[in-house]
Design brief:
Strand content of chain A: 25-35%
Number of strands of chain B: 5
Radius of gyration of chain A: 19 Å
Distance between the termini of chain A: 44 Å
Oligomer: heterodimer
Order of helices and strands of chain A: EEEEHEHHHEEHEE
Largest sheet of chain B: 5 strands, mixed
CATH class of chain B: Alpha Beta
Shape of chain A: elongated
CATH architecture of chain B: 2-Layer Sandwich
Helix content of chain A: 25-40%
Number of helices of chain A: 5
Strand order of the largest sheet of chain A: 1-2-3-4
Number of helices of chain B: 3
Structural class of chain A: alpha+beta
Strand content of chain B: 25-35%
């Protein structure tokens, strides 16, 4: 048992793990090790579990992006033009390579999500949360992702299309 | 590596409490754990995964050391703090070793 900063103690656990990814939203992993503070619920992940979470996030993000209509994406040339840089500079950009612009690959070509490109141009980070917990006046979608996502909404409250 | 390495000072130390060689050995052996919050900030701030965090710590040098302090909240626990330019990012991190395992407590933009 590890002491936690809250004064509680981390207890070893194995099994189902639900985490809230800052961009993907809730994710669920099965059969993983982790430690959780019984008092404040803070968690520590062994390396293998942390890697499993990263992999799961990558898979879910790819699934989400692959379900977006093609007209929502820029080609590399269009994205570069939007950002006012060359295609080469786009491909070499450290942040872009790190996923700060959502992109997907199709037929060996990279396509960049338009909304993400515009956000990146404005703020230097084109990532945005795909989901947020259901609040009042927001439309539920049952959607896009895994069953664990039922009960969450598309981020933009103004969206009137059911994506399921 | 354990906490039983002589009497701990109660104030800030000017040298790392945990030797980087030992820390890197623990990383190599996979004896490492990452706090959920550290994982999230590494991803939000840098787009880094767990593997990127490990790779970054492997690049740490003693010159990156910032301070070492006893944890205010965890009894008998020294925490080493580092500030470093790694992979073109300004990184602030702190970690400790407990029961022969490196626990990465915090990992974020400086």
């Amino acid at each position: 048992m590890y002491p936690c900063e809250c004064g509680g103690e981390y207890r070893k656990k194995w099994g189902s793990l639900e985490i809230q990814d800052p961009f993907i939203g809730p994710m669920k992993l099965e059969d993983v090790d982790y430690e959780e503070c019984e008092r404040c619920r803070d968690r520590i992940f062994p390396l293998e579990t942390a890697r499993a979470i990263d992999k799961q996030r990558e898979v879910l993000l790819r699934e989400i992006l692959n379900k977006q209509p093609i007209q929502d994406f820029f080609t590399a040339a269009e994205a570069a033009a939007e950002l006012g840089i060359t295609k080469q500079a786009l491909h070499k950009n450290r942040k872009v390579r790190r996923g700060f612009i959502y992109h997907t690959t199709l037929g060996g070509m990279i396509f960049y999500l338009k909304k993400s490109v515009v956000l990146f141009k404005d703020k230097g980070d084109g990532r945005f949360p795909f989901h947020q917990p259901v609040g009042e006046n927001q439309q539920q979608v049952s959607i896009l992702l895994a069953p664990s996502y039922v009960g969450y909404t598309v981020h933009e409250p103004s969206n009137t299309h059911n994506l399921s | 590596m354990t906490q039983k390495r002589g009497k701990q000072k109660t104030s800030t130390r000017s040298k790392p409490f945990y030797s980087l060689a030992e820390v890197k050995q623990l990383l190599k052996e996979g004896n490492v754990a990452i706090r959920e919050n550290a994982r999230n900030t590494a991803f939000v701030d840098f787009g880094w995964t767990a593997n990127d965090i490990i790779a970054a710590i492997q690049k740490l040098k003693v010159s990156h050391f910032y301070k070492s302090e006893p944890s205010d909240l965890i009894e008998n626990c020294m925490i080493d703090y580092y500030k470093a330019e790694l992979n073109e990012e300004s990184v602030y991190m702190h970690f400790y070793v407990r029961e022969n395992r490196l626990v990465i407590n915090s990992f974020k933009r400086l």
